[in-house]
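Example for tutorial group B:
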């Protein structure tokens, strides 16, 4: 991800995080869960600043769409499903 500086040249986006790694599984019939690392903001974040996070929905596609949209909104280039 890049942005255009005031001088007009392309610079790496300072908010870009790279790739978000996520896994998905069916936790019971018709209920899907994605697990991925969440991030803590602020001065109180523990070492690494990450904690487990997840999203649950009733279809695999809904979970995938939500996680990929969330990742893009917070600056990830893409989601890699492991």
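The residue assignment follows.
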């Amino acid at each position: 991800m890049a942005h255009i500086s005031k001088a007009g040249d392309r610079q790496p986006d300072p908010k870009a995080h790279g790739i978000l790694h996520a896994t998905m599984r069916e936790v019971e019939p018709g209920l899907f869960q994605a697990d991925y690392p969440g991030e803590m903001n602020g001065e109180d974040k523990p070492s690494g600043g990450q904690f487990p996070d997840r999203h649950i929905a009733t279809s695999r596609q809904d979970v995938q769409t939500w996680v990929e949209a969330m990742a893009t909104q917070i600056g990830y280039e893409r989601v890699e499903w492991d």
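Residues 60-73 form the longest helix (14 residues). Compare this with the pattern of hydrophobic and polar residues in the output above.
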